[in-house]
Amino acid sequence: MTEIVLESVEDIAPREALLDLCLGEQRRAKSSERLREGRLPADGLAFSAHGPDGRLVGTVRLWNVAAGPGKPALLLGPLAVHPWFQAGGLGARLMRTALAAAQAQGNGAVVLVGDAAYYERFGFSARKTSGLWMPGPYDRARLLAVELAPGALDGARGLISPTGARVAQPSLAELVAGELRRTA
């Protein structure tokens, strides 16, 4: 049985390896990645699935964005499950966990770029995304959303933009101090 838990620091390197395995290097060129760059996932909304031996076998994260001016939302992705675990419904469990946690926190909507046939079972559709656009190239038919609170995306129009906390960057003094310690 796999266990879904909040992501930990120990999950970072295995998560990146899993994403490379499942999505390939081209994942870094996607428009959704522009919204995640230099940002932290939404607090309490990054999940890891661990297999029976404790290794990371699945991941999903949500990110704070604005779905146009004055429309707070979350961006979902990437969602990935190790190929050995894909037939057992783990991706659906990760999705349900993430969406339930987002709703419990009071978030109103989640957007993503993905396969409508897969995500429609979770309530996603393109019905409320026609007035939104992504930074960079994307397939308009794959821009989907689900409202966790009725009307959260009513009138949403504009660029989807990142609003989440930035990854802390070390100061020049910290970098120099670290380099001095390493060479001493």
Overview of the molecule:
The chain is α+β, with helices and mostly antiparallel strands. Helices cover 27% and strands 24% of the residues. The protein is built from five helices and nine strands; from the N terminus they run βααββββαβαβββα. The chain has helices spanning 12-23, 31-36, 90-104, 116-119, 172-183; strands spanning 3-6, 46-50, 56-67, 72-76, 80-81, 109-113, 132-133, 143-147, 158-162. Strands 1, 2, 3, 4, 5, 6, 7, 8 and 9 form a nine-stranded mixed β-sheet that branches. It is globular and about 55 Å long.
| Percent helix range | 25-40%
Order of helices and strands: EHHEEEEHEHEEEH
Structural class: alpha+beta
Shape: globular
Low-confidence stretches: none
Oligomer: single chain
Q: Please tell me how large the radius of gyration is.
A: 17 Å
Q: How would you sum up the major sheet?
A: 9 strands, mixed
Overall average pLDDT: 92
Key features of this structure:
184 residues, 5 helices, 9-stranded mixed β-sheet, alpha+beta
Short description:
This protein has 184 residues and is an alpha+beta fold. The protein contains five helices and nine strands.
Per-chain topology:
Blueprint: E1 3-6, H1 12-23, H2 31-36, E2 46-50, E3 56-67, E4 72-76, E5 80-81, H3 90-104, E6 109-113, H4 116-119, E7 132-133, E8 143-147, E9 158-162, H5 172-183
Parallel strand pairs: 4-6, 7-9
Antiparallel strand pairs: 1-2, 2-3, 3-4, 3-5, 3-9, 6-8
